Amino acid sequence: MSYLEEIQVKNLDHLGIVAGLIDEIGIVKIINNKLGIDVREKISAGTVVKSILINGLGFVSRPLYLFSQFFQDKAIEKLLGERIKPDYLNEDKIGRVMDELYKYGLNDIFIEVVLEVIKKFKIDLKYSHLDSTSFHLDGEYKREEDKEKQEEEKIIKERPIFIKKGYSRDHRPDLKQCVLDLITSPDGDIPLFVRVGDENESDKSVFGKVLVEFKKQIKFDSIMVCDSALYGQENLQLIQHLKWITRVPMTIKKAKELVQNIEVEEVKDEDKEKRSDLNLESYTWKEEIVTYGGIKQTWLIVLSEKRQKSDLEKLEKQLSQEEKKSQKFLKEIQSEESEHPQAARYKLKAINKKLRLLEIKEVELIETYSKKKEKIYKMISLIIKKDEEISRKTKEAGKFILATNLGFAEKVSPKFMPLLTKNFLTNQ
């Protein structure tokens, strides 16, 4: 028999690097320490988890019963260890390991892995960033009915999440979904905390609780960074003992007033060089001390020149579009024959609801007669600009507000400026 006939080719591709990184972090050891090792099992729970991670990063999505096929053409002994065979990775074994992981507590295991990563790779934790997204899922997921039944029977117990329809961030409103809350480090975007929630929950209702739970489980002094979903009176009370930076929603009355009335000042000359180094030449800001939700804090009213130019161009475009639309409405309202004066005014009111920057104003209501000699009313009207609304949008162009409870020294430090650049300013 030729030696060539005995040669077998097995793939590693990028999965060798993935397996090596898993080993360097020590994930298999962590899982085995938590779930234990049964001498009768052919493959440990830690190795099963390693195989799931390798499969997930192998860009393959298959049903669980086809899982072992993924490793048929792979050098499995190099990836998972000697004497490991693809058949060991069957759906029963994987299912049992998943059940054990859930019973033990996925968050506890995840956090232990995170702490090991932080220690081994010396991850910078000056800041931590929180955001959420949603994932659509196929299937019926009838647990929504179970939820309603539990609420009716007032059953309160630990439960999995409820999959249901809600606001779709990935543009699939036809499918049921779940929510993922994720806290990452700015250094390499390393996941620090993961939480899965019901699709119908609001970011505003959970973000404060997520941050508090995160700080309970991971003990380090990190500045929490989040979008405007965090900013609410209840959340600010929850996180008052944490350091945080967030964006202020423009729905808040105080924020509207400041954006309208404050002129954003040019920064001091000594700070211009720093701004240039950090690519912040097109940004200026003004500082205000504000008490909101019972918490004293600093608001930075920021003006982005690039965003201001873009906003003003959009405003001009919107005004031009409304002018064309309002001309059609004007012809429509002036040709309308109404049997009663209030009917004509009701029609005008309905049309004006469709306009934001312009308004069709009644000049005169004429009483006349139709061809059938019936009394009718016709309205003479004209188009006017809503100067107050246009002025408001012009003043708001390019502006947004950041809020923080950081002290002055921390807030103006060089490390704070890249934070603004990465998380807020570059998104404007």
From TrEMBL:
Sequence ranges assigned to domain DUF4277 in this UniProt record: 8-114
Key word Coiled coil present: yes
Pfam families with a match to the protein in the record: DUF4277 (PF14104)
| Name used for this protein in its record | Similar to Transposase
Extract the coiled-coil ranges from the record. 302-339
Q: Which UniProt keywords apply?
A: Coiled coil
Q: Specify the domain of life of the species encoding this protein.
A: Bacteria
